[in-house]
Amino acid sequence: MADDAPLVEMTGVTKTYAGITALDDVDFLIRPGEAVCLAGENGSGKSTLIKLLAGVEWPDRGVIALDGLAQAAMTPTTAAAAGIAVIFQDFSLFPNLSVAENIAFGAELAEGARFYRGRRVREIAKRTLERVGVLMDLSAPVETLPVAHKQLVAIGRALASNARLIVMDEPTTALTEREVRALLGIIRRLKADGVAVIFVSHKLAEVLEVSERVVVLRNGRVVAEGPASGFDARSLTRHMTGRDLAETGPAPLLAGAPVLLKVEGLSKAGAFHGVDFTLRGGEVLGISGLLGSGRTALAKALFGLVTPEAGRVVLDGRDVPLGDPLRAAEAGIGYVPEDRLTEGLFLTQSILRNVAVGRVASHARGPFLDLGGLAAEARDWLARLRVKAPDAEAPVRSLSGGNQQRVVLARWLARAPRVLVLNGPSVGVDVGSKAEIHAIIADLAAQGLGVIVISDDLPELLATCHRILVMVEGRIVEDIAGAEATEEGLARRLAS
Amino acid sequence: QEATEASAEGGAGGPYDIATVVKIAGIQWFNRMEEGVQQFAADTGNNAFQVGPAQADPQQQAALIEDMIAQGVDAIAVVPMSPEALEPVLGRAQEAGIVVVSHEAASQQNVSYDIEAFKNEDFGATLMENLAQCMGGEGKYAVFVGSLTSQTHNQWVDGAIAHQEANYPNMELVGDRNETFDDQQQAYAAAQEVLRAHPDIRGMQGSASTDVAGIGLAVEERGLEEQTCVVGTSLPSIAGQYIETGAVDMIGFWDPSLAGYVMNTVAQMVLNGEEITAGMDLGQPGYESVTLDGKVIYGQAWVEVTAENLADYPF
Amino acid sequence: MTAAPAPRWGRLLAQPEARLALIMVIVFALMAALAPDRFLTGQNATSMAFQFPEFAILALAITITMLTGGIDLSIVGIANCCAIISSLILTRLAPGVDAGIGWLLLSYLAALAGGAAAGLFNGVLIAYLGLPPILATLGSGLIFTGLAVAFTGGTAVMGFPASVAWLGNGSLMGLPVPLIVFGVLAAGLSFVLSRTGFGLKVQMFGANPLAARYAAVDIERLLLKVYVASGMLAAVAGLVIMSRANSAKADYGQSYTLLAVLIAVLGGVNPYGGYGRVIGVVLAVLTMQFLSSGLNMLQVSNFAREFIWGALLILVMVINTRNWRRRRAPAAAPKGETR
Amino acid sequence: MSWLSRNETLVAGVILAFCVVGAALDPNFLSIPTLMDLLRAGIVLGILAVGVLVVLISGGIDVSTTSLAIVALYVTTLLVQGLAPEMGWPAAFLVAVAVGAALGAVNGVFIAGLGLPTLIVTLGTLSLFRGFLLTFVGDDLISNLPRGLRDFSRAMMIRGENADGSFYSLPWAFAFLVGVVALTWALLYRTMLGRQVFAIGGSMESARRIGIPVRRVQFLVFVYVGALGGLAGIIHAALARVANPQDLLLNQQLSVLAAVVLGGARLEGGTGTLTGTLLGVALIVLVSNSLIVLGIPNTFQSIAIGLLILLGTGLPAWQARRTQRRAA
Ligand SMILES: Nc1ncnc2c1ncn2[C@@H]1O[C@H](COP(=O)(O)OP(=O)(O)OP(=O)(O)O)[C@@H](O)[C@H]1O
Ligand SMILES: Nc1ncnc2c1ncn2[C@@H]1O[C@H](COP(=O)(O)OP(=O)(O)OP(=O)(O)O)[C@@H](O)[C@H]1O
Ligand SMILES: [Mg+2]
Ligand SMILES: [Mg+2]
Predict the structure, then answer these.
(1) Is residue A68 exposed (0-12), middle (13-18) or buried (19+ Cβ within 10 Å)?
(2) CATH code, residues A8-241
(3) Domain presence at residue C171
(4) What are phi and psi of C49, to 5 degrees?
């Protein structure tokens, strides 16, 4: 395809944020119908590159050319006009508008429509969702949707605008196996239609499966580039991190480990029913399930954010009061939420404060707060989780997605809970830090904590859990010992 | 600037710095008062000026007086928003050797003199006399005050009601004193409600200068110009158009420019060490022979305006 | 959370508070230059020091509620209501003019308790019933004002013992007592905000209420405390006003609500929560007072003063954003910016 | 959300309950004259509220509209009086709308142009507009309005006679409220511009990213609100038959905001309906214009209004909280 002129070409692009070099002299190129994968650790500059492409941010140096024309000033409008559609890591949807409108907005805008045509909007949305292969209430406001559905809406919006280049910044983080498969199918079809795709993901298997070219970023520089066939998971990991990583399963659970948490008959109409399970000290318990199977609602119920109608939760032989996060936390239950931007982080506040907010009570000296101690502890946790931050006083919003996730983790780890519920502990976290987070989970378990991991990432469950519960339509249908589980087996059970 | 520097020497007999502090700046009433103050300045060569807060708030008036004390004026003439709230700051003014004269505040303590255009009860009774004449001495009537906390308004109404009870037994007061917050729109809304609640109402008496205008509008809209009688305190410039149509039948007022002038005259006299005595002529119409009750100086300076003599008062 | 980095000039002026300080100095210098013989007098200094504490204390009350992303529009209602509680105790229960210092303290305590109760009422509406603060306090403010009218029939309560005057008019070691009261409260609030867990949580809650809930912050109790604190600050302001006016009445200080909001915002408090420093509010108060006294000395109309206040507020904001622009971080603009 | 738990339904319920109590206490309460008085009282408040609703939907807040309206009404009256005293009312209205739009553009320049927060800018212009008017334009009340405006105030849409021979009437100004509501509805729900207003209120960053000209939309929103403010102002002056630069309409700002929020618009932006807003206005107007009729003593009036605001906001808030508890 030598005659294919590049759709987008970046040459010598550099971008710095207040002293941090997010992109350093990067050359990047994509042709029509090509799928290129951007790989790299957290904070390596992937999202920044995408923001430049979308015209949301401007490079300090270097040239961006669209269809061979160097752009003097890229704006979201020129990017959209050139046929670039971006699915941002934070979706960038309109929470107050309906699913239909969210999907069709970009398309209508691009067409320069002056009047709002409700029927047409619904038609576009319906057609697009059919392409994605999901059914959704078109008139539901997006804010009422679960994260996964929001992500699907974001994907739909990009598809609807008939783009020539679709950029997906970690589009699969909140999707389960089934939707991921569907998405990969869509990408293949797009390629066939001559649409170019830039794909960012930390799930290496997907990366290798869907893309023909891989570009690896490290610390804002391109460190490797080539056809996907030339990489495998190991070599990719090495390029990204500069070292080899090997994940082993969890350390075996001590035979006599006491029961720590006992959940009996927990029910909430429309969400989960008659949930029973036990968690032993030192055990890591995985919960897998499809979208909307009730895992999140269950996790929230354990932490008191959802009030179950029946059942009880017993920790260390004592009943945990239901429906009150404060008392659940006091009893020793911690919860890392799945949507870190709205539920997890205080974006404008400093990184330190984001960690410290959970530990205020423990550092009280009478009416005063031992600020030094609090900060030292927070810094300690930031260091232990290797949060890549130039300045712990900087607002947490300046961190990359993966580093933000570690900040939320650090907050809860600092509280030393008895049971920690992790809803997507490594959502948007790169392989290197993922392994580290897994090591942390193992470490916590070794100290006698009970850990519950909810994840759509089956390898992650296999790597971390002693036992895996399978949830279908609000019920626990299976309880598999981790050692006996395989990825294929789990996937089959979920699909059935 | 020149004038103030000159006054810094301030020998006996002036020129003096005299600040007139009014309830609120920029309204018709006090703009008219300012004319009197400026006339006084022009006539006597004193540095007399008028200030007032941008919003009707006793605390802002107090702060303004505080600043006047700090800048060292020789006398303050004040029309208090709320006499009680000003006692401490006026006390401080007097301690600083500043002469204080007030207007519309017969109960004010920390002043040399208070000037009243008339006895409030008498004025109220006059309004009632007009109202009763118009109503033929019988029927329901309602009264309006700017605020329930305004002393003068309530004294007028007290005087009016007393006059009615003594002389017109066939008239009947209905409802509470309606509060209008010195706002024409509020007076209008309140009048509408009164008309709805008492369809057979025959008379209304207003106190704030905007009251009768609001009442007049409500009356006009209902086409009740003939059936109802509306009297109250107001200015021709505010109520004129309703007097013309007959929606308002009579207004009474005193000329604020004269009051402003007289306040400044009294302040200057006190500064010069002169004493005010009963029967004295303060040089302005209605204040030719004042009566004295303690510190309170009373004139007979009210004006009654109806459709006949409206043209004589162009303000 | 830790001490600011070494104060160099450039760095220093990067802070909104430092810029505000500069503006304050400029205003002061301007007024001093225009009316040196009147503005630069000891008498004027004392006069100003007596004037601003009453609304400055109200600005502190607004500040603490704004930090949570809320607002308290009922402060003036609370202030008057509490002043009337105190004044009724002094005049109806106690022997009025002859009441001793014990009665005075008792009446002050009752006023503070009233402020706390009013704040608690607001807090319950906002924290437990979920009313938007702006409407909850608008409504409750009307109720508090209404109660003040109902207690008194709308007239002023007078006839206090001489000791009442001390709080608003007295001096201690050469300093006006109201100034000292304000200083102590401002320092206390600053301390609470920067050095206690409560203060930290208030700011975190303001930054993201949902995340605060997920971080197991005791949101309801936190909000209750914030509005109780606001109510009690308002009560103190009410007592100062009562002392300054030597009377208590339902409609004193009506214009202070907006003024207090204006001052808090001018002082750099983010009205959407999460950021604000007491020092900024103090600087804003002083700037406003210099301006207003200075303009009074110059016999500038009070309407012009209003005009200048509005212009100043916008000017300060323009200066602040210009600075952000230079750092070229549109994505990192503070939360309120997106509104 | 079922219709039962909607703000609109709850506010309508409160209104209904109030009317039932009113009718029980005073047989004359439910009558055409009462209705006319209330409709008339709602005109200016309603137009201002519609403007504030649009700003709230766009994710901002505007506390300067009443101040803007007063400047517009006064400047217009002065202009008409000075330049063309015989001008008909439609021309005068156009002038007022233009003045209002220009003042709205001042807000727009600071907000959309310089990117300042809406609350702070409008808090500033609230003082700025009024201060400017009274310092530089004039502070005298004008009670003899130009002919055109006087004619307008006497033009009645509905007129009737009561049993006792007095009249009731509804001025043509009411048609303007209806027109403003219809126009705003069409703009918000039937044009892309309107959808963009909702979009930037939902998430400004997202709007920017998909290429909505955020600044332009914001600017237009403030110009539109300014124009509505100008219209409300001139209608207010015409109906009151006086152009008062210190009009206490200024103090209605919080009531306007309260009406809009009572009607279910969220202060965070992105949501709000015209029906809700009109119901909110109706509740506020109803309550503040019925206390004398209901015989509530003066001293308890502000308590009564305060309680009703709390009730009107409290019910939906409590409802929302309950459904949220059930769902989340
Ligand atoms: N607005 C900003 N202000 C300051 N620094 C920023 C900003 N946005 C990004 N950065 C920094 O730029 C670097 C690159 O960030 P980027 O978001 O591109 O990483 P990423 O590769 O997408 O990581 P992840 O996989 O975690 O999403 C990081 O060090 C990040 O902290
Ligand atoms: N409190 C609740 N009351 C009633 N229904 C609920 C409640 N919470 C969630 N649901 C419903 O229960 C189902 C399970 O939702 P949940 O978010 O728990 O799924 P999930 O398995 O965690 O999915 P995900 O992959 O998004 O995490 C959904 O249909 C959801 O709408
Ligand atoms: Mg990223
Ligand atoms: Mg979920």
Answers:
(1) exposed
(2) 3.40.50.300
(3) yes
(4) -65, -25
Q: How far apart are CA A207 and CA D288, in angstroms?
A: 66
| Domains contained in chain D, number | 1
Going by pLDDT thresholds of 50, 70 and 90, the confidence category of residue A415 is confident
> C75-88 and C256-266 helices cross at what angle (nearest 10)?
130
What is the ipTM for the molecules in this complex? 0.81
The total of structural domains in chain C comes to 1
What is chain D's pLDDT, residue by residue, as a tens digit (328 residues)?
Answer: 456 667 788 889 889 998 898 888 877 788 888 888 899 999 999 999 999 999 999 999 999 999 999 999 999 999 999 888 888 899 999 999 999 999 999 999 999 998 888 988 998 999 999 999 998 888 888 888 888 888 888 888 888 887 776 778 888 999 999 999 999 999 999 999 999 999 999 999 899 888 899 999 999 999 999 999 999 999 999 998 889 888 888 888 888 988 998 888 888 889 999 999 999 999 989 888 887 777 777 778 788 888 888 887 887 778 777 776 665 4
Residue B8: the pLDDT is 38
**Closest by Cα among C153, C272, C141 to D255:** C141
> Around Cβ A117, how many Cβ atoms within 10 Å?
14
Contact partners, residue C87, CB within 8 Å, separation at least 6: C107, C157, C158, C160, C242, C247, C248
What sign results for the dihedral spanned by CA atoms D97, D102, D105, D107?
A: negative
- Bond prior to A459 in cis (omega within 30° of 0): no
Options 3.90.1150.10, 3.40.50.300, 1.10.220.110, 3.30.479.10; CATH of A259-495:
3.40.50.300
Residue with tokens 């350093």: A24
The closest CB to that of C216, out of A356, A358, A367, belongs to A358
CA distance C243 to chain D (A): 25
Task: Name the DSSP class of A286.
Answer: E
- Structural domain boundaries enclosing D139: 44-250
Report how far ligand 2's centroid is from the alpha carbon of A150 (Å).
14
Collapsing DSSP states into helix, strand and coil, what is residue D271?
coil
d(CA A442, CA A336): 16
Protein residue with its CA nearest to atom 8 in ligand 1 = A398
Cα(A388) to centroid of ligand 1, in Å?
10
Ligand sitting nearest the alpha carbon of A89? 3
Tokens of B224: 């009740």
Model confidence pLDDT, tens digit, residues A33-75 = 899 999 887 778 888 999 999 888 889 999 999 888 888 888 8
Tell me which residues have their CB closer than 6 angstroms to ligand 2: A 146-148, 176, 268, 270-271, 289, 291-297, 306; D 327-328
Annotate A316-336 with DSSP letters as a single string.
TTEEPPSS-HHHHHHHTEEEE
For the question of whether the overall pTM of this predicted structure is more than 0.80, the answer is yes
Helices marked H in A38-164? 46-54, 76-81, 99-111, 118-132, 147-160
Q: Do chains D and A touch (3 or more CB pairs under 8 A)?
A: yes
**Which helix (H) or strand (E) covers residue A13, if one does?**
strand A8-17
